[in-house]
Amino acid sequence: MSRLPNGSGDSSGAGELHPNELDLPAFSLDVQALDLGSEVKALSLEILETESREPVRGKQAAEFWSAVFPLLTAGDPFVLDFFGHLDRVRDFCAAKQIAFHEAGSGCIVISQSTDQQLLQLFERFEGETFGCRAGERAKQGDRALTSELSRRGVDAYQDAYKHYSFCAVCEFEAGWVTLLSEKLWASEVIRRVRPAAQSFDVYISRPQ
User: Under the phi-then-psi rule, with left for phi > 0, alpha for psi from -120 to 50, and beta for the rest, what region is 201?
Assistant: First the structure.
């Protein structure tokens, strides 16, 4: 997956074109509501090979996701939360000169990464499950949440996401991001990520 030159055609579609009506790009981003119970508002974003429906992995996927997340935040402060294999995260951040801080006994927080740092982190830790939080509260130390992340992992976001623009669970090896948000609907997510879809020639679909 490589970026297209500026001015290339829009293949995102936003679900408006039926797949049988055109020659679709090689990759598709499925955006749809996710049922996690009546008390949780969630969306799934899944990057797939259009024909095989297999997850897109590796550098191609990392490049796409590292373009998507800054668009999703829409300028809000954001942090990444790591709560597994922390020695690997420490060593990698030290080697790449990526600033981080320890938040509790089992959580590392990386604040406001650059696009290049996001790409490096997403590619290196594709096989890990980690999180992202966006919103004004991300500028503050959320000790209660990071303590729960250390103890419960991603389940802690279900009790905290309403305080943020969104909390995201990243499972890139599966091609998958789960977005927890009271503020973002599927249509708004599509609007925000469309520039990345256009740049990487990815078709956006909304499965029913």
Answer: left
